[in-house]
Amino acid sequence: MSQKVTFENLWRKDPGALKKEIITIWKQHNPAFEENQAEERAKQIVYVVKNEFEQVVGISTAYKVYIKQFRNYFYSIRLIIVPEFRSQGMATELLVRSRDWLESVHQEDKPDPPIGLITLVENELVKKNKREAIWPASKMIYAGNSAKGHHIRIYYFKGATL
């Protein structure tokens, strides 16, 4: 990762003045994003990544969801990196930091603490180029495809039981 960036943990914190900037990024880079999602998603932020000018260039969010197929709760995790700042290293680092943080606090999320992470990989380049069954850095495991053809990846927290 050649860019100079900082990671700020905002899990269960008010994003304050960053909220407007974050919502703008979501709207600019996700055509399906609806304004009424903004307030709820802002409460789901795990990390923001800022460049050397303190501008937000990456965001991770997570929310607890019951996955019927796995008969357990997971954190559904989403990442967005502003295109000019995309690099293999930044997305991986944001995912690993978010994973590690959520793993460290998941037992506090009662009732029914999540047993891991789940994500949909929608980025066509990632689906084409990162085809390992288990991603080396994040340890996310390929678990099949969604109805829309997106890759489903999961990660189990250490000590997770089914």
Provide a descriptive summary of the structure in words.
- 25% of the residues lie in helices and 30% in strands.
- It has 162 residues and is of the alpha+beta class.
- It has one domain (6-156): Aminopeptidase.
- A 7-stranded mixed beta sheet has the order 1-2-3-4-5-7-6, with helices on both faces.
- The protein is globular, with a radius of gyration of 15 Å.
- The mean pLDDT is 92.
Topology diagram in text:
Layout: E1 6-9, H1 18-29, H2 38-42, E2 45-50, E3 56-67, E4 72-81, H3 88-105, E5 116-121, H4 124-129, E6 141-145, E7 151-156
Parallel strand pairs: 4-5
Antiparallel strand pairs: 1-2, 2-3, 3-4, 5-7, 6-7
Count the domains: 1
The ordered string of helix (H) and strand (E) elements is EHHEEEHEHEE
Instruction: Estimate what percentage of residues fall within beta strands.
Output: 25-35%
Q: Find the structural class using helix and strand composition.
A: alpha+beta
Q: What is the count of DSSP helices, taking H or I runs of 4+ residues?
A: 4
Approximate shape: globular
Distance, first to last CA: 36 Å
Mean pLDDT: 92
**What would CATH call the architecture?**
3-Layer(aba) Sandwich
Largest sheet features:
7 strands, mixed
CATH topology: Aminopeptidase
- Spatial sequence of strands, sheet with the most strands: 1-2-3-4-5-7-6
User: CATH homologous superfamily, by name?
Assistant: Gcn5-related N-acetyltransferase (GNAT)
Approximately how much helix is present in the residues?
A: 25-40%
What would CATH call the class?
Alpha Beta
Radius of gyration: 15 Å
Segments where pLDDT lies below 50 for 5+ residues?
A: none
Number of strands: 7
